[in-house]
Amino acid sequence: MASPRFPQQPPEDDVPGGPLFGAGRDRAPGYLASLRSGTVLGQLRTLALVLVVAPLLILAISPLIVRGGDGGDGVLPLLLCVPLVAGALVTVAVGPRTPRPLPPGQDRERAAALALVQFRQAVLVRYALAEGVILLGLPLAIAAETVLVFLAGFVLGYPLLLWLALPTAGMVERIRRRLEARGAQSHLWAALLAPALARTPGASYPPRPGGPGTGPGPVSKS
Protein backbone atom coordinates (compact mmCIF):
# COMPACT_ATOMS: atom_id res chain seq x y z
CA MET A 1 0.00 0.00 0.00
CA ALA A 2 1.40 3.34 -1.02
CA SER A 3 2.03 5.79 1.80
CA PRO A 4 -0.29 8.79 1.80
CA ARG A 5 1.06 12.06 0.45
CA PHE A 6 0.55 15.26 2.37
CA PRO A 7 0.56 18.76 0.88
CA GLN A 8 3.75 20.70 1.39
CA GLN A 9 1.98 24.07 1.49
CA PRO A 10 -1.32 25.33 2.93
CA PRO A 11 -4.25 24.60 0.59
CA GLU A 12 -5.12 27.15 -2.07
CA ASP A 13 -8.45 28.95 -2.03
CA ASP A 14 -9.91 26.63 -4.68
CA VAL A 15 -9.11 23.47 -2.72
CA PRO A 16 -11.81 22.02 -0.42
CA GLY A 17 -10.92 22.82 3.15
CA GLY A 18 -8.76 25.82 2.22
CA PRO A 19 -9.30 29.38 3.46
CA LEU A 20 -12.14 31.38 1.89
CA PHE A 21 -10.01 34.33 0.84
CA GLY A 22 -12.08 37.45 0.46
CA ALA A 23 -14.57 36.45 3.15
CA GLY A 24 -15.09 38.77 6.08
CA ARG A 25 -17.31 39.38 9.05
CA ASP A 26 -20.23 40.21 6.76
CA ARG A 27 -20.24 36.61 5.49
CA ALA A 28 -20.18 35.04 8.96
CA PRO A 29 -23.42 33.31 10.03
CA GLY A 30 -24.98 33.95 13.43
CA TYR A 31 -23.74 32.01 16.42
CA LEU A 32 -26.44 29.35 16.41
CA ALA A 33 -26.55 29.13 12.62
CA SER A 34 -22.80 28.55 12.50
CA LEU A 35 -23.03 25.44 14.68
CA ARG A 36 -24.26 23.44 11.66
CA SER A 37 -22.39 25.35 8.99
CA GLY A 38 -19.64 22.75 8.78
CA THR A 39 -16.98 25.46 9.10
CA VAL A 40 -13.97 25.82 11.35
CA LEU A 41 -15.80 28.64 13.12
CA GLY A 42 -18.79 26.37 13.72
CA GLN A 43 -16.58 23.72 15.31
CA LEU A 44 -14.89 26.23 17.57
CA ARG A 45 -18.22 27.71 18.64
CA THR A 46 -19.57 24.25 19.45
CA LEU A 47 -16.53 23.54 21.60
CA ALA A 48 -16.88 26.92 23.29
CA LEU A 49 -20.50 26.20 24.23
CA VAL A 50 -19.42 22.97 25.93
CA LEU A 51 -16.68 24.81 27.81
CA VAL A 52 -18.92 27.60 29.06
CA VAL A 53 -21.46 25.09 30.40
CA ALA A 54 -18.87 23.39 32.63
CA PRO A 55 -18.70 26.21 35.22
CA LEU A 56 -22.50 26.19 35.45
CA LEU A 57 -22.43 22.51 36.40
CA ILE A 58 -19.82 23.21 39.07
CA LEU A 59 -21.97 26.04 40.36
CA ALA A 60 -24.96 23.70 40.61
CA ILE A 61 -23.12 21.13 42.74
CA SER A 62 -21.03 23.60 44.77
CA PRO A 63 -23.40 23.46 47.79
CA LEU A 64 -22.73 19.71 47.94
CA ILE A 65 -18.97 20.24 47.82
CA VAL A 66 -18.66 23.12 50.26
CA ARG A 67 -19.83 21.89 53.65
CA GLY A 68 -19.34 23.34 57.08
CA GLY A 69 -20.73 25.78 59.54
CA ASP A 70 -21.88 29.33 59.01
CA GLY A 71 -18.55 30.73 57.87
CA GLY A 72 -20.10 33.75 56.23
CA ASP A 73 -20.17 35.89 59.37
CA GLY A 74 -16.42 36.22 59.93
CA VAL A 75 -13.62 38.20 58.33
CA LEU A 76 -12.00 35.12 56.77
CA PRO A 77 -14.39 34.88 53.79
CA LEU A 78 -13.72 38.51 52.91
CA LEU A 79 -9.96 37.97 53.09
CA LEU A 80 -10.21 34.89 50.90
CA CYS A 81 -11.99 36.95 48.24
CA VAL A 82 -8.84 39.03 47.76
CA PRO A 83 -7.09 36.32 45.64
CA LEU A 84 -10.22 36.12 43.49
CA VAL A 85 -10.16 39.85 42.79
CA ALA A 86 -6.43 39.64 42.03
CA GLY A 87 -7.02 36.75 39.63
CA ALA A 88 -9.77 38.66 37.87
CA LEU A 89 -7.51 41.70 37.46
CA VAL A 90 -4.74 39.50 36.00
CA THR A 91 -7.26 38.01 33.57
CA VAL A 92 -8.43 41.45 32.48
CA ALA A 93 -4.82 42.56 31.98
CA VAL A 94 -3.46 39.46 30.22
CA GLY A 95 -6.46 38.04 28.35
CA PRO A 96 -6.98 40.83 25.81
CA ARG A 97 -3.24 40.84 25.06
CA THR A 98 -3.40 37.39 23.52
CA PRO A 99 -2.59 36.45 20.82
CA ARG A 100 0.61 38.17 19.73
CA PRO A 101 0.47 40.19 16.49
CA LEU A 102 1.44 38.41 13.29
CA PRO A 103 4.76 39.31 11.69
CA PRO A 104 4.25 41.18 8.41
CA GLY A 105 5.44 40.03 5.00
CA GLN A 106 3.93 36.54 4.88
CA ASP A 107 1.96 35.11 1.98
CA ARG A 108 -1.76 34.82 2.54
CA GLU A 109 -1.86 31.02 2.92
CA ARG A 110 0.81 31.07 5.59
CA ALA A 111 -0.78 34.07 7.32
CA ALA A 112 -4.22 32.42 7.41
CA ALA A 113 -2.82 29.17 8.80
CA LEU A 114 -0.81 30.97 11.47
CA ALA A 115 -3.73 33.24 12.37
CA LEU A 116 -5.99 30.23 12.90
CA VAL A 117 -3.43 28.51 15.14
CA GLN A 118 -2.96 31.64 17.23
CA PHE A 119 -6.72 32.20 17.41
CA ARG A 120 -7.26 28.73 18.83
CA GLN A 121 -4.43 29.17 21.31
CA ALA A 122 -5.79 32.55 22.39
CA VAL A 123 -9.25 31.10 23.04
CA LEU A 124 -7.79 28.36 25.24
CA VAL A 125 -5.49 30.74 27.13
CA ARG A 126 -8.32 33.19 27.75
CA TYR A 127 -10.61 30.40 28.87
CA ALA A 128 -7.99 29.05 31.25
CA LEU A 129 -7.47 32.47 32.82
CA ALA A 130 -11.17 33.11 33.40
CA GLU A 131 -11.90 29.54 34.46
CA GLY A 132 -9.01 29.74 36.90
CA VAL A 133 -10.73 32.57 38.74
CA ILE A 134 -13.88 30.45 39.07
CA LEU A 135 -12.10 27.27 40.16
CA LEU A 136 -9.92 29.14 42.63
CA GLY A 137 -13.08 30.03 44.52
CA LEU A 138 -13.83 26.37 45.24
CA PRO A 139 -10.91 25.53 47.59
CA LEU A 140 -11.16 28.99 49.11
CA ALA A 141 -14.86 28.38 49.81
CA ILE A 142 -14.02 25.06 51.45
CA ALA A 143 -11.44 26.81 53.61
CA ALA A 144 -13.92 29.54 54.57
CA GLU A 145 -16.70 26.98 55.06
CA THR A 146 -19.15 29.02 53.00
CA VAL A 147 -20.26 28.71 49.41
CA LEU A 148 -20.45 32.50 49.16
CA VAL A 149 -16.72 32.64 48.42
CA PHE A 150 -17.19 30.37 45.42
CA LEU A 151 -20.12 32.50 44.29
CA ALA A 152 -17.85 35.54 44.45
CA GLY A 153 -15.33 33.77 42.18
CA PHE A 154 -18.10 32.79 39.80
CA VAL A 155 -19.46 36.33 39.62
CA LEU A 156 -15.97 37.64 38.86
CA GLY A 157 -14.83 34.93 36.47
CA TYR A 158 -17.85 33.88 34.43
CA PRO A 159 -18.50 37.25 32.74
CA LEU A 160 -14.79 37.37 31.86
CA LEU A 161 -15.07 33.89 30.36
CA LEU A 162 -17.97 34.94 28.14
CA TRP A 163 -16.23 38.16 27.11
CA LEU A 164 -12.79 36.74 26.41
CA ALA A 165 -13.30 33.14 25.28
CA LEU A 166 -16.71 32.90 23.57
CA PRO A 167 -16.01 33.29 19.82
CA THR A 168 -18.72 35.77 18.92
CA ALA A 169 -18.29 37.97 15.86
CA GLY A 170 -17.14 40.85 18.05
CA MET A 171 -14.54 38.70 19.81
CA VAL A 172 -13.21 37.41 16.48
CA GLU A 173 -12.91 40.99 15.24
CA ARG A 174 -10.99 42.04 18.35
CA ILE A 175 -8.54 39.19 17.89
CA ARG A 176 -8.23 39.95 14.17
CA ARG A 177 -7.29 43.55 14.97
CA ARG A 178 -4.82 42.26 17.53
CA LEU A 179 -3.22 39.93 14.96
CA GLU A 180 -2.96 42.79 12.44
CA ALA A 181 -1.54 45.32 14.90
CA ARG A 182 1.85 45.33 13.12
CA GLY A 183 0.43 45.79 9.65
CA ALA A 184 0.07 42.16 8.61
CA GLN A 185 -3.12 40.91 6.99
CA SER A 186 -4.27 37.90 8.98
CA HIS A 187 -7.05 36.51 6.73
CA LEU A 188 -8.57 35.23 9.99
CA TRP A 189 -12.14 35.24 8.74
CA ALA A 190 -11.04 33.39 5.61
CA ALA A 191 -9.56 30.65 7.80
CA LEU A 192 -12.52 30.48 10.18
CA LEU A 193 -15.16 30.32 7.44
CA ALA A 194 -13.35 27.54 5.61
CA PRO A 195 -14.99 24.11 5.60
CA ALA A 196 -13.73 22.02 8.49
CA LEU A 197 -11.87 18.80 7.74
CA ALA A 198 -14.46 16.78 9.64
CA ARG A 199 -17.59 17.93 7.84
CA THR A 200 -21.01 18.02 9.38
CA PRO A 201 -23.52 15.75 7.55
CA GLY A 202 -26.14 17.82 5.80
CA ALA A 203 -24.31 21.08 6.49
CA SER A 204 -24.34 23.92 3.99
CA TYR A 205 -21.01 25.62 3.41
CA PRO A 206 -20.60 29.34 2.67
CA PRO A 207 -19.84 30.22 -0.96
CA ARG A 208 -16.32 31.18 -1.92
CA PRO A 209 -16.22 34.85 -2.87
CA GLY A 210 -14.53 35.59 -6.18
CA GLY A 211 -12.07 33.29 -7.83
CA PRO A 212 -12.72 30.64 -10.46
CA GLY A 213 -16.00 28.82 -10.28
CA THR A 214 -17.69 31.27 -7.96
CA GLY A 215 -20.74 29.65 -6.48
CA PRO A 216 -21.59 27.19 -3.75
CA GLY A 217 -18.68 26.07 -1.63
CA PRO A 218 -17.46 22.51 -1.44
CA VAL A 219 -20.16 19.95 -0.84
CA SER A 220 -19.97 16.29 -0.06
CA LYS A 221 -19.89 13.98 -3.04
CA SER A 222 -22.73 11.58 -3.39
TrEMBL record:
Q: Where are the transmembrane segments?
A: 46-68, 74-94, 124-142, 148-172
Keyword annotations: Membrane, Transmembrane, Transmembrane helix
Q: Where is this region: Disordered?
A: 1-21, 203-222
What top-level branch of life does the organism fall under?
A: Bacteria
Q: Quote the protein name from its UniProt record.
A: Sensor domain-containing protein
